[in-house]
Amino acid sequence: MIDNQKIVVVLPAYNASKTLEKTYNEIPFDIVDEVILVDDSSTDNTADLAANIGIKHVIKHPKNRGYGGNQKSCYNKALELGGDIVIMLHPDYQYTPKLIHSMSYVIANGVYEVVLGSRILGKGALRGGMPIYKYIANRCLTLFQNILMRQKLSEYHTGYRAFSAKVLNSISYENNSDDFIFDNQMLAQICYQGYQIAEITCPTKYFEEASSINLKRSSIYGLGVLKTSVIYFLAKTLGVKNNLFKTK
After folding, report:
1. Which residue range or ranges hold the Glycosyltransferase 2-like domain (predicted)?
2. Domains of the chain, CATH where assigned
3. What are phi and psi of 201, to 5 degrees?
């Protein structure tokens, strides 16, 4: 805990057996109270390994629900456990757990309600091996979103995020897609509610075992980002109603 605020780390997992233990071993348990792993119907032994290394809360989907569907289970369980600060960390070791301290304290001290680990601040993305086409797409999509959503984020596409329970309880993330666009829709909901978002520089690693979506899925995701931005603009500027922006 930090000042009696419960810290929960959630791990949305799919075939993460090769990197899970390395990720778990770097989680700072001096402040982290609970770890939740949601296995999205992996074909390997991710769920069994999670239990064996000491993860108390392991949820296994009987059918694959997708990246967004996985996160919905993660956040629902974190709130059920009374988490005050919830950190979403990928168990593929692409993001370092060593930033959990910094991200948690920003929220615990009441500075921001949301913190993103940004690969774009500094040179973490390219140094870590991000494919150049993904880097360029990231920059272009972020520019488009910043213009339509009137924000100044360095990126909207990182998978390393920390939220206060207040934020998770105020946005309707259950209305979001079960696919990869869930992340982007969630940030749009947070911005729509008027929350300020902090970013910290985050190194990243691209390697064979790290999860990554292919060019086709990346293209579908990019179109979804554009759609989300337009929907946000219409809702925020013109008052066009959309289920994404309903409060709980």
Report:
1. 9-169
2. 7-245 (3.90.550.10)
3. -65, 130
Query: CB-hemisphere CA count at 13 Å for 82?
Result: 5
Tens digit of each residue's pLDDT (9 = 90 or more) over 180-228:
999 999 999 999 999 999 999 998 887 665 556 677 788 899 999 999 9
Mention every residue, 6+ apart, whose C-beta is less than 8 A from residue 197.
112, 114, 115, 116, 151, 153, 187, 190, 191
Q: What is the pLDDT of residue 123?
A: 75
Give residues with Cβ within 8 angstroms of 14, minimum separation 6. Answer: 39, 40, 41, 42, 46, 64, 67, 70, 211
Residues 6+ apart with CB under 8 A from 245: 172, 188, 189, 192, 232, 235
Identity (one letter) of the amino acid at 171? Answer: I
Write the CB contacts of 30 (distance below 8 Å, at least 6 apart in sequence): none
What would the two tokens of residue 23 be? Answer: 């990720």
Q: Taking each helix axis as running N to C, give the angle between helix 182-192 and helix 67-80, from 0 to 180 degrees, rounded to the nearest 10.
A: 50
The answer to whether the Cα torsion of 224, 194, 97, 51 is positive or negative is negative
